[in-house]
Amino acid sequence: METEPIAPERLRALGWTSRSGLITQHNIMENYRLTSRNTIVFGVRRIERGTGFPLPTSEKTPDPALVEELAGAFATRFPSLADVAVARAWGGWIAITSSWLPIAGQVGGNVFYSIACNGHGLAQAPYVGTLIADLIVDGKRPEDLDFLWAEKPEFPRPMMMNRIGLRTVWTVDRFNDLINGSRRNARKGSLPVA
What we know:
Elements: E1 2-3, H1 8-14, E2 22-23, E3 30-34, E4 40-44, H2 64-77, E5 86-88, E6 103-107, E7 111-115, H3 121-138, H4 143-146, H5 163-179, H6 182-188
């Protein structure tokens, strides 16, 4: 989702000066990024599993209830911006592995890839990209990349990736919101960032 443009003075009042992305401490995280257009792009909060293969290739329209829930989360995290409207929302498929770790590898002699950040790409993708870049330049695979490297990616059937499992993880995350103080911290103006 993306907000409408926000007045620069209201953004300055947040104290968010670097335009670095922010994420919450959830299994199914919320992520927020300040754009050069003075909007905030945010997403994730709930995921759903595709019911068949291949996944539909047409644009995935987000569920209006999910859009409302995510807009409410935005208002909770940024109470001073609770009146800012959502300008647009979109959806799409993400890749999730049973280990909840991304996978990196090489196809042929000159194609390197990283996939399946499991909804945590805002944090993981730039780091994994630098590891792959180092590999391309030096020809030596960094140790951190060894944990993600797959000579031949094979995926066992994920146990928690059915509708009930995903709903359970989401419910636990929302319960943790109630008991861990993240809403209280947001109201006080301090964002816990992972």
